[in-house]
Design brief:
With about 160 residues, the protein is of the alpha+beta class. The chain is built from three helices and five strands; from the N terminus they run H-E-H-E-E-E-E-H. It has helices spanning about 5-55, 80-85, 150-160, and strands spanning about 55-70, 90-100, 105-110, 120-130, 130-140. The longest helix is centred in the first third of the chain and has 50 residues, at about 5-55. The N and C termini lie far apart (about 85 Å).
Amino acid sequence: MIDTAPNLVLLAWSMILTVVLIVLAVLLTIFIVLSIIGRRMQKKQAANEDAMKQASQVVSMLIIDKKRMKLKEAGLPSIVMEKTPKYMRFAKLPIAKVRIGPKMMNLICDEKIFPLLPIKKEVKAVVSGIYIMDIKSSRNNLVTPSKTKTGLLARLRMKAQRQ
């Protein structure tokens, strides 16, 4: 009688090894493709940022309100909706409602400076088109929000102390 059990075990291990090698090859290929695409996108972003910096200007504005809202709700020009990629149309963006001279406008704000924008205050900001890039100065000192998050228990305690 011939024992075939070791041959079956060897066959099973070779199949598993083949599958693992194929999965690793596919993952390596995906990693290489994503790194190439990522580099290209970084170059495009850097070029766009340089163009925005060249076209920027310092403007004095009164910030009336700021919110995170969808592009459709923001009241931006229709050309903005047309030029925006489809995957970004439903994302919430930081929008600031400002008054520049006699004109009321809705502007898109940079994520980094959105928490720093003072409401109902006048600031000098660097603006490129409808994009607020930076805050140069304010009549009142800019208040930086604290970076530490308060936990649920701490928020409940503060709420209880206020009442």
